Amino acid sequence: MLKLLESRIIAVVIFMAISANAWGQTNLIDHIKETEKSIVTVRTELTRVMPTTPPRVATFYRTGAGIVLSRTGIIVTNTHIIIDAPFVFIILRDGTKLPARVLYASGEYDFSFLKIDPPYPLQPVHWADSSLANIGDPVIAIGNSDYDNQSILEGHIKNILQSRSMMTNDFLELDLDLYKGDSGGPILDEEGRLLGMVMAKRESEPNSSIAIASNKIRLQYLQYLKNLP
Fold first, then answer.
1. pLDDT score, position 54
2. Smallest Cα–Cα separation from 122: which of 146, 144, 149, 90?
3. Which of 72, 121, 143, 208 is the most exposed place for a label (fewest CB within 10 A)?
4. How confident is the model over 40-66, as pLDDT tens digits?
5. pLDDT of residue 23
């Protein structure tokens, strides 16, 4: 009788563990799906007349991701995506293409705020506190390049780069192999909140990418809102 009772207790514990893990995975998927609503495509266009006979017009494109910060259409992306581009557009998830104007650009930290006039309220991202990030923490990236568009990439924080003067977490180094087109995409914590924004891939190291810490972006965003007339 005692052995039977012990077996039942073990079975219940195993069931609870499996159920908790499945519940956690379901919650994570739900969080990711919710955050996906806050991701847009940033596209720049440059038109030039080519020195051919006869002359022909060619349009060059540069694409990356952007993250929605407000329902009214403020979006953050990398400065290197939009720099020197005469025309910047945002493509929403339903394919709507809208012209964007630059509100703020930081060359030092490689992020810029753009503004569009959306036809409907957008879904802003939820913020994580990047000052609480630790080496080894799991992270999630949502791919935006032609190679991994809308794929879910799992990795970890392998290093944290801090400001020497402020001792704040400025950049996160990740063990993720990202691609051209993933720039400007979100790095999420386990609750689907914005922990960072993809900036660059380390070409000298395999499976190594750099993201701007979310607090760096958020503080500048709050400062921008504070200075509005």
1. 84
2. 90
3. 121
4. 999 998 777 788 888 888 887 888 999
5. 40
Contact status, residue 186 vs residue 140, Cβ threshold 8 Å: no
pTM metric for this prediction: 0.82
Residue 200 vs residue 126, higher pLDDT? 126
pLDDT at 131 over 90: yes
Do residues 213 and 169 touch, judged by C-beta distance below 8 A? Answer: yes
Question: Are the CB atoms for 102 and 88 separated by under 8 Å?
Answer: yes
DSSP state string for 54-111: S-EEEEEEEEEEEEE--TTSEEEE-HHHHTT-SEEEEE-TTS-EEE-EEEEEETTTTE
* Cis omega (within 30 of 0) for bond into 138: no
Cβ-contact 218, 131 below 8 angstroms? no
What is the share, in percent, of the chain residues with pLDDT greater than 90? 52
Looking at every residue in the chain, the average pLDDT score rounds to 83
Superfamily of domain 39-115, CATH level 4? Trypsin-like serine proteases (2.40.10.10)
- In Å, what is the CA distance from 222 to each residue of 50, 154, 162, 215? 43, 29, 21, 10
Q: How many CB atoms lie within 10 A of CB 194?
A: 24
- CATH code for the part of the protein at 130-221: 2.40.10.10
Please indicate whether the domains covering 39-115 and 130-221 agree at the CATH topology level.
yes
